[in-house]
Specification:
Length: 90
């Protein structure tokens, strides 16, 4: 994926918790949808069009998977960082 060329103008923080879920919705007749649910808020990640997958879509999906794996590894490291299993603030 190309490097960002414009300045970021805003950031939205979505905190995980007991109601947070990540769900893949594969469909037989269209491209998949990844739903990130945070209680009352849901973020849907889709491909650039609903009926085909581009090389950019594939590159983004692979980058997302890699970064999600890195995030999970970091969270696990923090969670197991204290003897009580409550984790540490990074």
């Amino acid at each position: 994926m190309a490097r960002r060329r414009t300045a970021r103008i805003s950031t939205i923080t979505l905190n995980t918790g007991s109601g947070a879920q990540a769900i893949n919705h594969p469909y037989p007749a269209r491209t998949p949808v990844l739903a990130l649910d945070f209680g009352a808020l849901s973020v849907l990640v889709t491909t650039s069009t609903g009926d085909e997958v581009t090389a950019s879509d594939l590159e983004f999906a692979r980058q997302l998977a890699h970064q999600a794996h890195q995030f999970a590894t970091s969270v696990e490291r923090c969670y197991h960082g204290l003897p009580n299993g409550r984790g540490v603030a990074a």
